[in-house]
């Protein structure tokens, strides 16, 4: 897979090949962090859930806070609901990362805006901590939806997909990594259902798929 930034507002994704998409095992994951700049911020929570047999397996989850080397700003604390006091006794990333890798084993990763944030953030964290970078294939719901609707000019926010697929989210606390993983999983299953409705069995980006990049909105 190749991700290529083409402007401040767009990137392209190519080289995606997933055979028999409905039959695959997936691991949906999400990170919370000290901020939105993947180059300077740090992971504060990792959440993940498994999708097997075209169903979210809520009994198969991964969830941990991560002690950050820098404090969470007050605005981010309010936004995520994760406070510095909750991280005082949390494990370091290097002490939980192998467990996360084991949880994702033999799974295709699913994320939302992960090509723009979660994967670059993880790459930087791995470099800082001398940890091996995850090598699983990864699908992003933004790219998948952009593949289905290349004519769209909207930025594909989470709420956009929630509304489009009529996803139930009232039972989930937003900006919690595990809850967001479950939410992204529900969105992914909606996208996968649309692939089936179009009689598309394999997810293949033969031509580069153009995706609108999210715009950073400062927290106050």
From TrEMBL:
<dbReference type="InterPro" id="IPR013520">
    <property type="entry name" value="Ribonucl_H"/>
</dbReference>
<dbReference type="GO" id="GO:0006260">
    <property type="term" value="P:DNA replication"/>
</dbReference>
<dbReference type="GO" id="GO:0005829">
    <property type="term" value="C:cytosol"/>
</dbReference>
<keyword id="KW-0269">Exonuclease</keyword>
<dbReference type="Pfam" id="PF00929">
    <property type="entry name" value="RNase_T"/>
</dbReference>
<dbReference type="InterPro" id="IPR006054">
    <property type="entry name" value="DnaQ"/>
</dbReference>
<dbReference type="InterPro" id="IPR012337">
    <property type="entry name" value="RNaseH-like_sf"/>
</dbReference>
<dbReference type="GO" id="GO:0003887">
    <property type="term" value="F:DNA-directed DNA polymerase activity"/>
</dbReference>
<dbReference type="InterPro" id="IPR036397">
    <property type="entry name" value="RNaseH_sf"/>
</dbReference>
<keyword id="KW-0540">Nuclease</keyword>
<keyword id="KW-0378">Hydrolase</keyword>
<protein>
    <submittedName>
        <fullName>DNA polymerase-3 subunit epsilon</fullName>
    </submittedName>
</protein>
<feature type="domain" description="Exonuclease">
    <location>
        <begin position="25"/>
        <end position="197"/>
    </location>
</feature>
<dbReference type="GO" id="GO:0003677">
    <property type="term" value="F:DNA binding"/>
</dbReference>
<dbReference type="GO" id="GO:0008408">
    <property type="term" value="F:3'-5' exonuclease activity"/>
</dbReference>
